[in-house]
Amino acid sequence: MPNDDFHAWSYFNPVNIKFNVSASTELATELRGHRYAVVTYDEPYFAKIRKELEDLVGPAECTINDVQPNPDCQILHDQCERLNSKVTNIEIIVALGGGSVIDTAKVLSASTLGFSNVLDFVTNEKKELNLPPIPIIAVPTTAGTGSEVTCWATIWDETEQKKYSLAHPDLYPKYAIIDPSLMVNKPVDLTMATGLDALSHALESIWNCNANPVSARYAIFAAKTIIRDLPELLSMPKNLALRENLAEAALMSGLAFSNTKTAIAHNLSYPITLKYGVTHGIACSFTLPTILRSVAKIGGFRREALQEIFGTNLLKGADMLTSTLSAMQVKMRFRDYGANQEETTNIIDAAFLGQRGKNFIGSKEDFLVSARAGNLV
């Protein structure tokens, strides 16, 4: 159990954050006179925003618009080749989209010597990453991943059924431009999944060995806001005020876990996404009540943070969280997603051995007791 001594801690985040309902104007101010690339989705909505931007500052030198959910090694390799084939040097990458877009932009930013260089780094075959990277301006269009204020990206290898984390302090975006109006027309299922991802980030940053008083304050705000407003937003997806609340909560969640990384819920989620195709936000949220029950006896500022969110009785808080998730149709057991008993055991064993599992302040034994009592396994 970590020492809750407040006398030795640090917090760092260098991203210049702009919260404004006018992303195009903010982008134009930062891009004028620079050669830039745009990373986004191949959808009419994003093409329209890109055209508005190009009308203001001129055309992009390169557009990567075939980003897929959970960016895979194969397509990342191709995208890096396309960016690096440009005769003119790109000075700024604009990441316009959700977490997958921003993660892709980070990979592209680090790939001036090719994707193989990045892959060697994340698989620990190479200790150094040749940088400096290309600066990134991140414009998130979902309220979820917090990637706009972190220095890492997730790389998926579906062929090998593996997930890698690209992490480097030079990969923080230069700017994060948060425009809630860009999120108003997002589908309900995407809104729910990204909102639950942000909730997971907030809670994971609290039951974390790397938690600190600053990250805890961000996490409290984020978790309370999401639990309060996400269910209502799902019934009123065009409500700009609720979108603004969720956008701010997702940002705060990102600022929290930018200093702690995630913990056990995320390690448990990766096989559920890779093998069973479950959306990341759902996969990392259904274990949260069980984890909360397993750390109900924790002390210090982490307990105080959780009590600010869930009340003084954390066991009742876990029941409330279960009810909230169930009301959003989140299934609450491993077998609901296709994992049998043996597979579930293997997932849990591997999760506690992984780095995110080691970030967790609790124990595997307490987690299993809570999991069995709550019928998670």
Structural account:
With 377 residues, the chain is α/β, with parallel strands linked by helices. It has 2 domains: 22-178, Rossmann fold (3-Layer(aba) Sandwich); 186-373, Dehydroquinate synthase-like - alpha domain (Dehydroquinate synthase-like, alpha domain). Helices cover 51% and strands 10% of the residues. The chain is built from 16 helices and 8 strands. It has helices spanning 23-31, 44-57, 73-84, 99-109, 115-122, 188-206, 213-235, 240-257, 264-276, 280-283, 288-294, 300-310, 314-327, 341-353, 355-359, 364-373; strands at 16-19, 36-39, 62-64, 92-97, 136-140, 152-157, 162-167, 175-178. A 6-stranded parallel beta sheet has the order 1-8-5-4-2-3, sandwiched between helices. α6 packs antiparallel against α7 and α11 packs antiparallel against α13 (314-327). The longest helix is centred in the middle third of the chain and has 23 residues, at 213-235. It is globular. The two termini are 25 Å apart. The model has no long low-confidence stretch (mean pLDDT 93).
Provide key terms for this protein.
377 residues, alpha/beta, Rossmann fold, Dehydroquinate synthase-like, alpha domain, 2 domains, six-stranded parallel beta sheet, two-stranded antiparallel sheet, globular
